[in-house]
Amino acid sequence: MKKHEVVITSYGLVSPLGHTPEDFAKNMFAGKSGVVNIRGNLVPENFPVPYGAVIGRSDLPESDFFKGVNKDSILKSWLMTAVAAERAMKDVPTSVHLDAIVYGTADGVSFELVTEVLQNGIDDQYDQTRFACESSLDNLSQVLTAKGFNQISPENIISLNSACASGNQTIGIAYQGISTGRWTTCVVGGVDARCEPSNFLNFFHLGALTTDDIAPEKASRPFAKDRSGFVRGEGAAVLLMETRESAQKRGAKILGVVSGYGCTSDAFRLTDGRDDGSSVVHAIETAIKTAGLKNEDINYINAHGTSTPLNDRLETLAIKKVFKDYAYKLPISSIKSQIGHSTIASSSIEAIACLLMLQHQKVSPTINYHHPDPECDLDYVPNQSRDVKLKHVLSNSFGFGGQNACIVFTKE
Q1: Rounded Cα gap, residues 228 and 307, in angstroms
Q2: Whether residue 304 lies in the annotated active site
Q3: What is the DSSP track for 47-92?
């Protein structure tokens, strides 16, 4: 069976660092932070969680799909998905046949409701509680159809929710489908727009969020000794993946290659990974093996790097187990220090970050890294971006429930 090379030819995003790849790259490499104070605005002054990487509705660009509709009357995840999708597909000819969508979303699925909305419109009085259980995946499919792309068969429209591993898993599923010849093209990505009181409280009661009395932009401190939890974030990203043959046939610019994928499950605890990192180790090793590479071929690691005491220690341990002495020569950084943790959308946004790093031959910094942790003693690219010769980069993503997904991206 012929194995097809899988490439990425377009992408769009909505993020705390900007809503275009150019703005995102500029702010990412400059070490900017998208974390803001939420007390007295999004939540009461006495709310236990003081900050988040929130994307305001008023800051979102206009969406052609929702043109003329009051932004306040639309589920925010739909708005973010529509903007990311429209920007990702704006230069893709509608003659390109789309075979599948694999999209990470916290919402449910209801094609019927989306059809009703499209037929009857949306106004300020529309019952928003009905939207709370509906799917941004449906909206993505409708946006693509409205733009003139073909309708995709329902069995090839896949909704994915594997917590923080979702984004990498959407890429991995598409990689498997395209490389084996099942699909030629696939739209992937994820959205998370749940920076709202109840969701903050869920993570707060799990002890996962930092609540330190500190400036918002300094709150997320991956791998630092004084880290105390992650900062909740929001975002959306949409990418088009296809075979190299398909991209070359239409003269599309190839932005990067998806060359390897590894996915494992700890089957351990609801929120914690295995203490020995064995499943994470296997996911990393599998991603490198399927890419046909040696460990020393990896030039950089985009860490999961949530800024929780447990995760950063275990990720560091797993990297050491895989790469051994070479681990100390590898630049590693966490963009969650800048944009917080948008859980379901996080590794979709980080995929675009990795492609931008390959393009610019520069790696993003881990900001707020001022106090080294003896248990986290690798090169985390502290506080400033760095020029690095990049060919292959590894992106890690580990979700609640022990879901581990790792991708290798290769420069075109």
Answers
A1: 7
A2: yes
A3: -S--EEB---GGGSPP-STTTTS-GGGS-HHHHHHHHHHHHHHTTS
| 164 part of the active site | yes
Task: Please determine, for residue 394, whether its predicted confidence score (pLDDT) is greater than 70.
Answer: yes
In the 8-state DSSP scheme, what is residue 124? T
Asked whether the CA dihedral 337, 338, 343, 344 is positive or negative, the reply is negative
Nearest Cα to Cα of residue 137 among 182, 95, 80: 80
Residue type present at position 106:
A
Q: Tokens in use for 33?
A: 């932070």
- The pLDDT tens digits of the residues spanning 61-111 come to 999 999 988 888 788 888 999 999 999 999 999 999 999 999 998 754 334
Which residue's structure tokens are 């709310």?
A: 47
Burial 33-56 (b: 16+ CB within 10 A, else e): bbbbbbeeebbeeebebbbbbbbe
Closest to 83 in 3D by CA, of 189, 197, 7, 194: 189
Of the residues 282, 304, 354, 376, which is catalytic? 304
Structural tokens at position 5 = 């090379």
Cβ atoms of residues 31 and 384 within 8 Å: yes
**Which pLDDT value is given to residue 268?**
67
User: In terms of C-beta density within 10 A (0-12 exposed, 13-18 middle, 19 or more buried), how is residue 311 classed?
Assistant: buried
Q: Respond yes or no: is residue 186 known to be catalytic.
A: no
Task: Name, in order, each residue with C-beta under 8 angstroms of 344's C-beta and a sequence gap of 6 or more.
Answer: 104, 105, 106, 161, 163, 164, 166, 167, 190, 191, 192
Helices H / strands E in the chain, number of each: 12, 14
The one catalytic residue among 164, 186, 263, 354: 164
DSSP secondary structure of 352-408: HHHHHHHHHTEE--BTT--SBBTTB-SB--BSS-EE---SEEEEEEEETTTEEEEEE
Could you say which of 4, 19, 282, 341 is catalytic? 341
